[in-house]
Structures are given as C-alpha cells and as structure tokens.
Design brief:
single chain, 286 residues, alpha/beta, Nucleotidyltransferase, domain 5, 2 domains, 5-stranded mixed sheet, 25% strand
C-alpha cells in the first residue's frame, strides 16, 4: 500500500504543486518512528514529483488545472490522496488565500488531513539541504566550527520584508528568530550586526530589495569593520519556495500528528492588507 501526499506552494503570484509517494503505509511510517528510525531516513525514501504553475497567470487560474494535470501524469485521482500540505504564510494575500482555500476544500471533500507549513521554513529547508548553498560558504568556518546563520526573506512591500533567522550546522537547520516583519533598512543593520559574529547567508524572493538597502548602508558606513565576516546572497531559484520542500515539511508534520483542523485553517498574513488598512483608517461617519 502506498501513501500519497499532495503539496501546494502559492505564497507568491505563481507557485508549484507536488505529489509525494511512500511505499509504506502511514501507520507503518509512524511505527518506524516509534522504533527509533530517523525521520531523515524515512523522508529520503519518499519519491516526489512536481509541476510549476504557469508564471504568466496567477495561481487562482492555474492551481486547479496544475493539480489535475499532475495527478493525471502520475496515474492518480484525487480520491487516491491521503493528505495535503500547503504553505500557510507569509506571502501574497491572494496566493495564500488560493492555496489555503483549495487545500481546505479538497481535504474536507476527501476526508483527509491537511498540514500548513511556514513559507520561511520552506526556504530554509531548501537552502540547508542544498549542496550549492553549503559550498558557497564552505571555505569560511566562522567561530562555530562550520555553522552559519541563514536569514530567509519574503517581500512584504512598502520597503519591508517578512523574515526569519536560522542556525545551520552539521546538516541541522534550527530556527532562532520567529517570523517578523521589519523595514529593509532596519534588517540591513541586523545583517551587519550578525556578520560581525560569523558568516551569514540571505535567501528568499525579496533579497534584491534587501541587498539594495544593505549596500546603501555600507556606503554610508564606509564598508564593514575589518573583523566583519561575509554576507552572502543566494541568487537564482534556490531561494524561491517550492512545493517539493513543502511536501518534505508536510510529511514531517503529518508523521508527528501536527495537522490542522480543516475549518480552522487560515492563512498567516502577519498584517492587514493595504485595502483593509485603508478601510479601517477612514474616519467614522457621525
């Protein structure tokens, strides 16, 4: 009996979908964990295939057709799914709503569990497991014997970023700062401070805006102090959240029984939308 999980990533304008299959039953996987089998070993045996949404259109138009296409390509029907993992935020208001609504409708209709994962955790997992990212700073060990700090960032617009901080060492990725939203100018200062203690890597969809703020700060300060370490910027698609990483985190949460109540599952926006802020700021009519 195979166990199948559908993963949805719609934190941006577009996104991706993935299907993961394990040759073991859910109960068998849980029993293996109880026997002491490492989670990493179980996840490594799971096969995952993914499909990118059409970037020319928003996820509202492309998500459902992409799910149908991927299921068809894998010879599956929706009734064959055993669980759904979805990005819960932070990210695009519209994208998160589309992904969460789709996951809730499917989970309710199929009677299967749903798991929400953090966008910043998705990016962090991709980076921590990437040989490219680890090679990028492999020649600089820092004061922690090879460990390094990872900042994951998602554009919050208005000159701000959603961000989280992680410690990556010996293959482990541990969150050290929970999700925050701050001005890019302030976050640039935080990067400089962190670089004084060790090597820093920044990854995520909003690195260009943050890097501009960081460069402007260095110009004002005349560069880093002589004992400052490097701040590296993860270029390319590695910092873009992908459904394959959503699936991996989804399996881990599901096997730990960290599922969400379907009707209680809501996107994590971390702040009101511009339209909501504008509406609440209007004077009360007397």
């Amino acid at each position: 009996m195979t166990t199948k999980l559908l993963a949805l990533e719609t934190s941006g304008r577009s996104g991706s979908v993935a299907i993961s299959r394990s040759s073991d039953s859910y109960e068998g996987l849980r029993e293996a964990l109880i026997r002491g089998v490492a989670m990493e070993g179980l996840i490594a045996r799971i096969d995952t295939v993914s499909l990118q949404l059409d970037a020319r259109w928003g996820s509202a138009k492309t998500l459902a057709p992409a799910i149908e296409r991927l299921l068809c390509e894998q010879g599956l029907a929706t009734r064959d799914l055993d669980a759904i993992a979805v990005v819960g935020g932070p990210g695009s208001f519209t994208g998160l709503r589309v992904g969460i609504a789709t996951a809730k409708v499917m989970a309710y209709a199929l009677g299967i569990p749903v798991v929400a994962v953090d966008t910043l955790d998705v990016i962090a997992r991709q980076i921590a497991n990437s040989q490219i990212a680890n090679t990028q700073i492999a020649d600089r060990t820092g004061p922690w014997g090879g460990g390094w700090d990872l900042f994951t960032v998602v554009d919050a617009f208005r000159g701000q970023s959603f961000w989280g901080r992680y410690r990556v060492c010996n293959g482990e990725c541990i969150r050290t700062v929970e999700t925050r939203i701050d001005d890019n100018d302030w976050l640039a200062v935080e990067l400089v401070r962190s670089s004084l203690d060790g090597d820093v890597l920044v990854a995520g969809p909003s690195i260009q805006k943050l890097r501009d703020a960081y460069r402007e700060l260095l110009q004002v300060k005349g560069g880093l102090p002589s004992d400052g370490c490097e701040v590296d910027w993860c270029e390319g698609g590695l910092g873009e959240p992908q459904a394959t990483a959503v699936a991996r985190l989804g399996w881990e949460a599901w096997l730990k029984d960290q599922t969400s109540e379907v009707f209680g599952l809501l996107p994590m926006y971390y702040r009101s939308s511009a339209a909501e802020e504008k509406r609440t700021s209007r004077p009360t009519e007397g």
